[in-house]
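Translate sequence into structure tokens.
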Amino acid sequence: MKKVSAILLALTMLIGLCACGKSAPAASASPEASAESAASPEASAVPSGVEDGVLTVAMECAYAPYNWTQSDDSNGAVPIKDSNEYANGYDVMMAKKLCEANGWQLEIVRLSWDSLIPAVQTGQVDAVIAGQSMTPDRMKQVDFAGPYLYATIVCLTLKDSALASAKGISDLAGATCTSQLGTIWYDTCLPQIKDAKIQTAAEDAPAMLMALETGTVDFVCTDMPTAQGAIAAYPDMTILDFAGSGDDFQVSDSDVNIGISVMKGNTVLKDALDKVLSTMTKDDFNSLMSEAIAVQPKN
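Result follows.
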């Protein structure tokens, strides 16, 4: 009996050792992966969104020269998901460069301005490339890659307006104005003008420009690329650029740095985008914007 018991005991110990031998490799099969997970828990918790090889990007498709809608694929336009229309503009051109560098396909989703950040937060889209300023408030909601453009703040008025000769924001005092809803132009810049008669914010850039074109307001506040695109479409408008005058809007770098928003913690996608953007200069950005302005629709 003692001999049988000893044999059984030996077998039990052998089985136990074999079990331990199987589990050990599983725990240390990928030390690199374990180290990455420990260093960046968000990286493993948040999918990049491009695992399928497709970068899904949201934009308004109504914010020339950043982005717009057109009826065909001319000038390199990209189909808009769930429509028979196409998107083009600076944002589309930049998205194509980012996809080409990373071997992704590009998918464009058309959403309203206020829907863009929620779409990233919920995973409806992978990124927003839509002329968004990298403001502290937005950075609380999403992470930003970039900047992918630097945009100074300017105003637009009609050439035959008394404001066309304005040399600084002081000369705009008491005038009627508006800008686009949910932008630093409306929330931060217009209130800096003394006694400005600030009207209801425009839903989008076309509505803002139409308010000026129809005489509903005396001037609008926007950024330089939008203004340059506007005068290409509306020759009766002129740009008021007060840079260097000492009487300009007070804004921070975060207000004029334009970035690409991704889901909080999506470091994989953010890093992939930043890797490409880091190879581009301010001149590269401005050159691409000039290309966009040259092909934007005139109406």
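Note: DSSP finds twelve helices and 13 strands in the chain.
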